């Protein structure tokens, strides 16, 4: 009995292989995750009074220029500005108030939970300018969180476990508010 | 000792045994079948996403829906279109799109539903803002600004 001729099996599977190679996309998606606030009932909108020292107003106008508390700023400098603003390491009376809080794993520490970054974007500004602004702010937060993580846990923030992350997020919560949308909270 | 006599040996070259070749190729094939997911929409809009460094990888692909915003071939350069699934749409269609996507997801995926916005760099912020508002109203609160690594 002659064996079954399997010479063409290779060709057939090659064709399948090429089909999958062509139709599939290997690209992994990267992006900047954000959490939108829940839609609010406009009938019971309430004014929230924020002290001047607790607010950082970032404005992006139509031609892509950034202003930060009414002074012009470059995107590259915004990260540093956000870091200084959120951390307020020197307890500057012009920068946000800190509150003493007992944080799990970290003990009693200064928590920056009063600050608000207010974003106001002109509708004609480009998406890229908006993205770079958001990116700079997130970078500022990430740098602070990283510093704290290295200081207290000995490894950077992405290497922390969920419990440690929660503790750090408690110290540096992302409090960003957009003009068109009321409150855009941080991603954990 | 006799010299000069060489017996000409006839050697048959044995054919290369290719019996294992299909198995090898099948292995590669299965690898590709497992690691890939099918491209489910063909993009009709052209877009170039912004670049950044503080990006996170999008996990749970089955819980991700996409909104594409970009230029359409042949249309004026400064007009931008929104694409949902395979067709162009308007901001008003987003709500029903989100509901439809949510209905298709398993109950595990529904709470972690993420909408990935793949928008061109030059899209005016007004459109993005409108899209965000529509997403907010339909309770798709996890969004992701798609970008490429710098």
Give the helix/strand layout.
The complex is a heterodimer of chains A (188) and B (150).
Chain A: H1 7-23, E1 24-25, E2 30-35, E3 55-60, E4 66-68, E5 71-73, H2 75-87, E6 99-103, E7 107-111, E8 116-121, H3 127-153, H4 162-171, E9 175-178, E10 184-185
Parallel strand pairs in A: 3-8, 8-9
Antiparallel strand pairs in A: 3-4, 4-5, 6-7, 9-10
Helix pairs in contact in A: 2-3, 3-4
Chain B: H1 21-35, E1 37-38, E2 45-46, E3 51-52, E4 56-57, E5 64-72, E6 81-84, E7 87-89, H2 94-104, E8 114-119, H3 125-137, E9 142-149
Parallel strand pairs in B: 3-9, 5-8, 8-9
Antiparallel strand pairs in B: 2-5, 5-6, 6-7
Summarize this entry quickly.
Chain A has 188 residues and is an alpha/beta fold. Chain A has helices spanning 7-23, 75-87, 127-153, 162-171, and strands at 24-25, 30-35, 55-60, 66-68, 71-73, 99-103, 107-111, 116-121, 175-178, 184-185. Chain A contains 4 helices and 10 strands; from the N terminus they run αβββββαβββααββ.
Describe this structure in words.
Chain A has 188 residues and is α/β, with parallel strands linked by helices. Chain A has one domain. Helix content of chain A is 36%, strand content 22%. In chain A, strands 5-4-3-8-9-10 form a six-stranded mixed sheet, with helices on one face. The C terminus of chain A is likely disordered. The mean pLDDT of chain B is 83. Chain B is built from three helices and nine strands; from the N terminus they run αβββββββαβαβ. Chain B has one domain: Nucleotidyltransferase, domain 5 (2-Layer Sandwich). In chain B, strands 2, 3, 5, 6, 7, 8 and 9 form a seven-stranded mixed sheet that branches. With 150 residues, chain B is α/β, with parallel strands linked by helices. Helices cover 26% and strands 25% of the residues of chain B. Classes of the chains: A alpha/beta (188), B alpha/beta (150). Chains A and B meet through helix 1, strand 1, strand 2 and helix 3 of A and helix 1, strand 1, strand 4, strand 8 and helix 3 of B. Strand 1 of chain A pairs antiparallel with strand 1 of chain B.
């Amino acid at each position: 009995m002659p064996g079954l001729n399997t010479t063409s099996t290779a060709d057939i599977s090659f064709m399948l292989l090429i089909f999958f190679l062509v139709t599939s996309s290997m690209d992994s998606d990267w992006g900047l995750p954000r959490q939108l606030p829940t839609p609010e009932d406009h009938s019971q909108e309430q004014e929230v009074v924020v002290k001047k020292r607790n607010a950082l107003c970032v404005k992006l106008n139509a031609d892509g220029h950034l202003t930060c508390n009414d002074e012009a700023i470059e995107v590259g400098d915004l990260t540093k500005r956000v870091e200084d603003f959120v951390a307020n390491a020197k307890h500057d009376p012009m920068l946000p108030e800190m509150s003493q809080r007992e944080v799990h794993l970290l003990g009693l520490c200064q928590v920056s939970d009063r600050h608000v970054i207010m974003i106001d974007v002109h509708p004609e500004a480009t998406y890229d300018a908006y993205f770079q602004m958001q990116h700079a702010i997130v970078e500022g937060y990430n740098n602070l969180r990283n510093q704290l993580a290295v200081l207290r846990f000995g490894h950077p923030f992405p290497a922390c476990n969920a419990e440690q992350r929660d503790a750090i997020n408690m110290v540096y919560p992302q409090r960003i508010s957009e003009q068109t949308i009321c409150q855009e909270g941080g991603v954990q | 000792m006799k010299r000069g006599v060489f017996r000409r040996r006839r050697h048959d070259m044995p054919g290369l045994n290719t019996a294992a070749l299909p198995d090898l190729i099948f292995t590669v094939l299965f690898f590709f079948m497992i690691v890939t997911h099918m491209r489910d929409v063909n993009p009709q809009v052209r877009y170039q996403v912004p670049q950044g460094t503080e990006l996170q990888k999008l996990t749970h692909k089955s819980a991700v829906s996409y909104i594409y915003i970009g230029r359409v071939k042949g249309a004026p350069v400064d007009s931008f279109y929104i694409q949902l699934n395979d067709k162009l749409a308007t901001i008003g269609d987003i709500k029903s799109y989100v509901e439809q996507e949510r209905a298709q997801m398993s109950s595990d995926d529904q709470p972690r539903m993420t909408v990935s916005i793949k928008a061109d760099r030059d899209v005016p912020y007004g459109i993005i803002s409108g899209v965000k508002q529509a997403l907010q109203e339909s309770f798709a609160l996890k969004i992701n600004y798609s970008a490429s690594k710098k």
